[in-house]
Amino acid sequence: MWISSTWVLGYVLGVVAQDVDYSQFVNPFIGSEGGIPGYAYGGGDIFVGSAVPFGMVKLGIDTFELPVNQSALNGGWTPQGKVTGISLMHESGTGGGPKYGFPSQMALTTIEAPVNVLDNVTYWQDRVGDDFASVGYFRTHLESGVTVELSASRHAGLYQYEYPSTGGKHVLVDFSHYLPHPTRSWDSQFYTGGEIEIQPNSSVYTGYTSIAGGWNIGAPVTVYVCGEFDSKPDSAKAFQGKNTFPASRHFRSFDNETIPHPTYTGSKARAGPLNNRVGAIFSWNSTTNGAATVKSRVGISFMSVEQACAYKDQELSTWSIEDTAQAARDEWNRDVFSKIRVDTSDKANKTRLALLYSSLYFTHLIPSERTHENPLWESDEPYWDDFYTMWDLFRNQVSLWHLIQPTYYESMIRSLIDMFKHEGYLPDGRSGNYNGLVQGGSNADNVLADAYVKGLRGKINWTEGYAAVKKDAEVLPYFDQNPVDPQGSLKDGRSALDDWIPLGYVSADRNSRAVSKTVEYSLNDFAVSQIAAGEEPADRDLYLRRSAGWQLSWDPEAKSRGFTGFVMPRYANGTFHKTYNITNCGDCNWSDESYEGTAFEYSFVIPHDVSRIITLMGGPSHFEARLDYVFQPNTSGVDLGVNGLGITTINNIANEPDFQTPYLYNYLNKQWKSVHRSRQLATDFYFNSTNGIPGNSDAGALNCWLIWQMLGLYPVVTTPVYLLESPWFEDVNVTVNHNHTLRIRAEGLDDGEGQEGYYVQGVSINGQEWVKNWFEHEDAGGIMSEGGEIVFRLGSEQKVWETGDVPPSPGHAVVDVGGGYL
Fold it and tell me: Which segments constitute the Glycosyl hydrolase family 92 N-terminal domain (predicted)?
């Protein structure tokens, strides 16, 4: 391996930098709100609260806001919503239906009428002033005068309530609380049972809650609970009450619906055959302990009450909210933030620091690491949940985890393969121990292929991994009767294989989302071919040929905005939908012909065969003209809504299919235009503010796009290729492959005051002058596995500096399917 003195210096600085508190630069509210007139949605829908990296517990408030705020459905937090509870489980950044929001507590100053603990509306609370959050810590002030402080470990949460000097001190434990969907019954969660027991002569309660449904219409999830207060309550009584709520909402309607009052049952309450709601009220006299503070620590487990209690005792050995928050910060600094180290001195650009480290934070909230917490089958393999979803994650986020989180990432891959072994399919989405929803293709195939071609092996059983992706490619899943799509399964696999295998494309008359599925199935089969090349070489050519199927949906006569040739809906008889609006996909949803993107956009989304796109669009000059056009303001023909707040261009950087499009100029050896377009998008739509991302965070996918942008690189999914762009920092040290250092330096970088520039004038990798605008994972002695140094020479000139080959198109020229069937 080539080593320079600058690389050694970077390594030394990296060791020293591990003592830096990078968490101070994180803004946990980036993307927490936003929106445009006419849309009652937040911005990134992110979780605001306390969590550790990939933690099972994400402790935060649950709120209800009208008009319905999307953020309340998953992250729980909204800027103006009323607090209905404080629960231990949440998603983050997701744009679909709700999951979790349980188990819950709520601090109350009275339990007298009109308060009814079975009716959220009678005790929900507005907040006073602004909430405060930092890594590992959250604080809010309720209108009742109670101050709530929260912190969390991996499987447990610590609550601290500071009560006012007047009024009572009560904590409601509600095992029937969950995040509802007030307007869609099929998309809501619902309570299916529970049990609570207050341990005699103690401050401990135990039990379980079971919640079903939600975004993926999942089976009931049972969570065992072990809670404890720091002082024995003066009164503790369990209750049960009739479960009157329909599945569509957790709150009573506003039409004077009568809600029954609870029946207090002593120290125990069970749901019973009627699925009664259960919970408990704990109360302290005003003189107890001579203080107005009540603390509670709660462990949860999917396995048993005993395991929940062990987590509570072992992970939260202290009652100190400060110590617990500090432990969380230490873990984030050690395991996440210190993996990418930049100058944090007084002279550093603090906005860029906030964007970088906040983005790293949001890319490590989900999925959830749940090893030893799999209630479905016994296995020695790791277990993960909350892949919400692969459709979002595969584009660039898994490639980052591959570099900076190899242990976690290997664990994820092993878990995915284990799910296939025991449940029959890899998940495209998964939450609450249940697969679904499949937004397009079987995109876990892409995840596995990306890991495989970059050499991730470890304890992964790739024989089984290949069997998993091959099943996705060959076996039609059963129809799960999901109401959002009457034409195919949304739980597992590829629902349109009945078209894809015989026709080579997905037909518009027999299946939904024909355009986007055809594009995605093509990449899926390319991913299968990449793994087959090493595991079952005889299969490689079959799937490589099938990966060209998108060309069967290419209508060379389709015209839009002065351009000719697009992927289009095609019927089973071979004819095209000639009147299809290429720039408007309607609702762009489950039952439409293209999902979350127009045909104009999807015509660029063939990462394994860009050279063929260029040819079909009329050659390099026509391709470049069309690429220029999609970035022009006021060209969008569709109402993007929450998936593109304020974006007026055809290219929608708020939506995952368009993530790579700004970088396609590299395939013309005009890298400076990729830098120009992507930097413009980043500075136009990413800010250190509550509306600081252009759409749903999507489990951190939008945040991860920005991380790659700031590093000056971009991965081409399912291949070992990285595109060279332009870094935002003079010196970046990235820990790759456990303990190696990749140093990225920028000479002549724009200092934020307009000096110098950010256009590339030249690049060297490990001391070798680099004439290509791309490189592969193992180039230059293993630059991305063994480490080394990439040096960018930057300036203000928009320069064509590259003279080497354009990035490869490994799916190209296998078979020309331009006018016939495979």
Answer: 25-301
